[in-house]
Amino acid sequence: MLDELAPDLERKPENARFIFNDDTRQLDLLREAVVGRSLDTQATIEAIQQAINRGESEVSLVFHTEDPAVRSDATAESLGISENVVAVSTFFSGSSEGRIQNIRTAASEFHGYLVAPGETVSMAELLGDISLDAGYTEALIIFGDRTIQGVGGGVCQVSTTLFRAAFFGGYPIDERYPHAYRVLYYEQGPNSPGPGMDATVFVPRVDFKFTNDTPYWLLMETYLYGEQLLWKFYSTSDGRTVEWSSTGPRNVVEAPEPLYRENDDLKKGKIKQVDYEADGMDVTVYRTVSRQGEVLHEDTIKTHYLPWRAIYEFGPGTKLPDDVEVED
Description:
Elements: H1 2-9, E1 17-21, E2 26-31, E3 36-39, H2 41-53, E4 63-66, H3 76-79, E5 83-91, H4 97-108, E6 113-115, E7 120-122, H5 123-127, E8 138-143, E9 146-151, H6 155-169, E10 173-175, E11 209-211, E12 218-225, E13 228-235, E14 240-246, E15 250-253, E16 259-262, E17 271-275, E18 280-291, E19 294-305, E20 311-314, E21 325-326
Parallel strand pairs: 16-20, 16-21
Antiparallel strand pairs: 1-2, 3-4, 5-13, 6-12, 7-11, 8-9, 10-11, 12-13, 14-18, 15-18, 17-20, 18-19
Helix pairs in contact: 4-6
């Protein structure tokens, strides 16, 4: 019985969460630390037996406790955090309300999160359950060879932004997957690095991971300003610099001709675009991370985008041009 209750009674230790105050250069507490606990089954059984022998009807459970690595009274100095080491923005103009909600929900999981020296961050692990119960809603996702409505559409705006923050911050990229096709959301705004600089996640099978290979803690902050996601890393620079280049689009394959398919839910004469064309291509991005003439990391990040066809749906009885391809 106790073994069955244990998972509900236990909790993992959680570090406090902070934001870095740029004026005071100190940490402002965002969320209190959580002390972990686990049920000591053997000690609890012994306590129950002793209570029975004494004729007592109540007994306290016995727990092991575990302090988190970072308590609520931690300071910027104790964690080695002194400055903003990288700030990256991506833009999502034209996104649906559902997509923006999912971006906000996913990004909030990282706000104030601390990464220990040597720790590898798994985005899938931090996000956990992407479901309606977790605050997500339906928006467009890539599934197989189609773009469809699915819970969590837009989360890849968050993974792409985190990927770029780690990339331009000079941190090791441990696991990264591109989208199936070139998504123009990720090339909006000023100073866009162009294609080949996106990262997708599909929890739990497709992940994005990077490692904090510095001797200092890393604090992440995320902010939504209108149609912009800003990701900031606070730590202390160890003097590393990042040089990068891109081949740009290579081996370009034109998108197939649009496909039309009937949708009984649409009225006669109504035509609705549900997927958008994108040329296929290969892009290779090179990165060299150095410190005082010593090369710390050299990366070759290859991306292969599939050619993607536009898809239109039409209501029964709608007159279509003679030269279009209609799905059987």
